[in-house]
Amino acid sequence: MKLKLLATVLVGAALTAGYQYLAVPDLQKKDPDAGLSRDEIRQRDERAQENWAYSLGLQAYVWGLPLTITDRERLLRLNERKLKFVTERQICPCAPINQIGHMTKLATSQDELPYTPNNDTIYSGVMLELKDDPVILSLPDVQDRYWSVQVADAYLENLPYIGTRATQGKGGHYLFAGPDWQGEVPTGVELRRLSTNSGALALRYGVSKEDPQDLPRVLELQKQVHTTSLSNWGKPDGFGKVTTVKMSRKEYSGDLALFERMVDLLNENPPRSEQRAAVSMFQSIGIELGKPFDASRLHPATVAGLKRALADSQDLMTWKVKYRGTPYPTRWNNLHEGSYGFHFINRAEGALEGLMVHDREEGVYFSTYEDGTGQLLDGQSRYVLHFERDALPQLQNKGFWSITLYGTNFQLVDNAIDRYSIGDRTPGLTYNPDGSLTLYIQHQPPTGLESNWLPSPDKGLFRLNYRIYLPDEKTRNPKTLQQFIPPIQPQARS
User: Fold this and answer.
1) What is the mean pLDDT of the chain?
2) Which of 24, 57, 175, 443 has a C-alpha 20 to 30 A away from that of 432?
3) pTM
4) What is the pLDDT of residues 343-356, one digit of tens each?
5) Domain span at residue 347?
C-alpha cells in the first residue's frame, strides 16, 4: 500500500514538474486582462481571433488546393479558344471533358509545359465528369513496353491502376462511374468507381529514344485508346463518342474569392467520409460542407486572418514544392506517393508541381537542387553521379530509370545534343569494368565519355529529377532506398 502511495506521489510530482514547461495560461493566478483598458482588451481578443483564423486559413488553403487545380484543368478543357491554343503547341495532352487527348512527341526544351515534363514517356489524358453519364475507357493489350493508366479523384488522390504492373499489360474496357451511380455494368466491362464525380486519367507509354521507329508504334497504340459515354455504348455508331459536357462557373471576386471557389468545389465533390472530419475544423472560418462561403457573415478579425493566410500561402507552397518530399543525407528528396491519406500538405505539393504523382509500386521520384555538400547546383560547376554496382536501381519487368535536368522554371534546358535525361535506356551508356556506373553532369562534354553525359546550362541554377518506374520492393522502400540515391559529387569549376 505504501509503495502504491509513493508511486502515486512520484508520478503526480513528475506531472506537476512537467506542466511548468507548458505554455498554458494560468487564469487563476493572473488575470490576463488586468490593467488593460476596454479597447486594449478588445484589441487583444481580436488579435487572438485573427491568429486563429490565420492558422486555419493556411490549413484550409493547403487542404483545398488540389480541388482548385483540378478545376483549373477542367476550365481549360471547357474553353475552346484556350484548348486550341495549348493543343496546337503541345503544351499538354488536353481534350474536351471526357475525351482523350494525346501528346504526339516526347517533350523537349522547345515545349513549355505546366509541370516538370517527362522525357521518357508519351502522355495521354482525360478529365472526367461523371455525374450525368459514366465513361468507358477502352485500351489495347500492351506487352512490349512500360505503360500505365493512373486514375485520380477530384482531390488528386490515386485509385487502382491499369497497365504493365496492375493488369499485367492487359487492356480491356473499364467503366468509370461516380460514387452514387447505380446503373447496370455492360457485359465485358469492368467497373471502376471513383469517390467523386470529377476525376482524371493519366496514360503513360514508354518510348525508346534510340529507336526512331518506336514513337510511331506508340502513336498507333494511342489510336486504339477510346472513351465512350455509357449512354452511347452498344449503339451502332456510339463507340468512341462521349456526351458533351456543358458547365458554367460563376465569376469570383473579392479578397477571399479563392475560399469561396474552394467551398463551391468542395460541395460539388464532397470528400470521402473518413476525411470529412478535416473539413469540420474549418467551420469557424466559414468553410462548411453543404453551405456556401459568405465572407460577409464572418467577424472582421476572422476576415483579416484569412487575408493574411492567402498572402502567406504562396510562400508556404513555394517552399514546400522546392524542398518537397523526405530529405535524405545524400541531399535527394524522396517525393511522397500519390495515395496521400491524411498527409494533406504532401497532396497539395504533389498537385501543384506534378498534378498526378505515382504510387510507390508504380514509380518513385526524387528531386534535388543541391550537390552532396549542400551547395546549389550551378551550370558553372561540373558534377559526377556515381552508382556502385549494388546501388543501381532494381526494377520489375519493363521498369526503367532516368535522371532529368530542369531549369529553375521546371522546364527542360536546351543543349547541343538534345539530351534532356539520362538513364538505363540511354543509347551507348557505358558501365565501368566493375559494373558500376558514372554519369557526368556539366555544360561541356567530358572527353571520351560523351555517352554518359547529361548536359547542364552554361550558367545559372538547375535541378534534377530522378525517376524509377516499377522499382522492386527494396528500391521503393523508404528504409532501404538510400543506397540507390548516391550524392552528386562536385568537381572543379568549368
Assistant:
1) 86
2) 443
3) 0.83
4) 887 888 777 777 78
5) 326-493
478 and 333 share one domain: yes
| The predicted structure's pLDDT at residue 13 | 46
Q: What are phi and psi of 138, to 5 degrees?
A: -110, 130
Mean pLDDT of 164-185: 95
Residues 259 and 285: their CA atoms lie apart, in Å, by 10
User: Is there a domain that residue 28 lies in?
Assistant: no
391 occurs within a structural domain: yes
DSSP codes of every residue in 434-461: TS-EEEEEESSPPTT-GGGEEE--SSSB
Exposure string (b/e) for 100-124, b if CB count within 10 Å is 16 or more?
bbbbeebbebebebbebbbbbbbbb
State pLDDT tens for residues 397-410.
Answer: 999 999 999 988 88
Q: Residues 405, 453: contact at Cβ < 8 Å?
A: no
How far apart CA 178 and CA 165 sit, in angstroms, is 25
Residue 170 shares a structural domain with residue 287: no
What is the reported pLDDT for 152?
A: 93
88 dihedral zone (left: phi>0; alpha: psi -120 to 50; beta): alpha
Residue pair 136/233 in contact by the 8 Å Cβ criterion: yes
The answer to whether 25 touches 36, Cβ cutoff 8 Å, is no
The per-residue pLDDT for range 4-20, each reduced to its tens digit, is 444 444 444 444 444 44
Backbone angles phi, psi at 440, to 5 degrees: -115, 120
* Residue keyed to cell 522525357: 119
Residue 58 · residue 313 · CB < 8 Å: yes
Judged by phi (left if over 0) then psi (alpha if -120 to 50, else beta), residue 134 lies in beta
Mean pLDDT of 389-418: 90
For residues 413 and 457, the answer to whether their CB atoms sit within 8 Å is yes
Q: Look at residue 433 in the predicted model and tell me its pLDDT.
A: 95
Residue labelled with grid coordinates 486555419: 56
CATH number of the domain that residue 258 is part of: 1.10.3360.10
Please report, for the domain that includes residue 223, its CATH number.
Answer: 2.60.40.1610
Query: Half-sphere exposure (CA, 13 Å, Cβ side) for 143?
Result: 2
Q: What is the CATH number of the domain that holds 336?
A: 2.60.120.600
**Residue 470: pLDDT over 90:** yes
Q: Residue holding cell 484556350? A: 82
